[in-house]
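Before a colleague's protein record goes any further, I have to sign it off. Thanks in advance; the entry in question is below:
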Amino acid sequence: MKQRKVPMRKCTGCGEMKPKMELIRVVKAPDVTDENGEVTSKGEVSLDLTSKKSGRGAYICRSLECFQAARKARRFEKAFSCQIPCEVYDSMEKELTQSE
């Protein structure tokens, strides 16, 4: 039998390539636009523990150290090309510590 290829992703915190299933996805939901094409609300940035949410994704190890390193270097903001408020980072950090 042919062995399946394991998808690999790069952790935004430590920069290591790891199997996708070992990492947590951070997702930025798509922007909501009206009928004129103007943006009515920006997409929300959140942890995607199920890997099912739609939007642009970045991956992080399940460790708090990698999350803090990515936050300090503003790697999520670079990946999503937007400013992320401190409250969003704090809620993601709280959710990450609860999932461990």
Summary: The longest strand covers residues 24-28. The mean pLDDT is 90.
